Amino acid sequence: MNEHAGIVTFRGQPLTLLGRIACIGEAAPEFTALANDLSEVGLSAYRGKIVVVSCVPSLDTPVCDLQTRRFNKEAVELGDDVVILTISMDLPFAQSRWCGAAGITAVKTLSDHRNAEFGRAYGVLIKELRLLARAVFVIDREGVIRYTQIVKEITEEPDYGAAVLAIRNLA
User: Fold this and answer.
1) pLDDT digits over 59-118, tens only?
2) Strands 108-111 and 82-88
3) Domain 3-170, what architecture?
4) Which segments of the chain are extended strands (E)?
5) Which of 20, 91, 115, 167 has the most CB atoms within 10 Å of its CB?
């Protein structure tokens, strides 16, 4: 398995990402993750739509909370042709509880906890923590990656403006 040291840090300490890092212009790797009801959901279920994958280490942390709330707000404004997925290693039950408490209805949460298939396929699985790095991927209607951002310091938020611009350019 590919290892990439130092792409991300946690409080300044370098971490190692596992997997092949997904790049702009490539076909988005297929993955299966668990929905809140424990059903398996694959990326292919959203073919024909613009898909935003917002991956976070854990919804129960302040920055992940902010990121998911922000993308939930953006989802309402972006319309039905855009699907926003928040993927973390949190258990589906914890994701469901968090969404209910936070009033999140426009973003779909998926759990990669079972086998880290998404994390490995996109190169964002943190070896030292078995969590996902903070990242955003925008995938067009044909399944091609059109925007990526792996946030250098995982305690910081992504560049929402750049991600939303990439989405609007595809709409």
Assistant:
1) 999 999 999 999 999 998 898 999 999 999 999 999 999 999 999 999 999 999 999 999
2) parallel
3) 3-Layer(aba) Sandwich (3.40)
4) 3-10, 13-18, 32-34, 40-42, 50-55, 82-88, 108-111, 125-126, 131-132, 135-139, 145-150
5) 167
pTM exceeding 0.90: yes
Tokens representing 35 are 């929905």
Q: What is the largest CA-CA distance in the chain?
A: 40
The amino acid occupying position 81 is D
User: What phi and psi, each to the nearest 5 degrees, are found at residue 61?
Assistant: -120, 155
User: What is the C-alpha separation between 126 and 139, in angstroms, rounded?
Assistant: 22
Is residue 14 classed as helix, strand or coil in its secondary structure? strand
Q: Are 109 and 151 in contact (CB under 8 A)?
A: no
Bridge-based pairing state of the strands 50-55 and 40-42: unpaired
Amino acid letter, residue 41: V
Among 62, 168, 34, 149, CA closest to 70 = 62
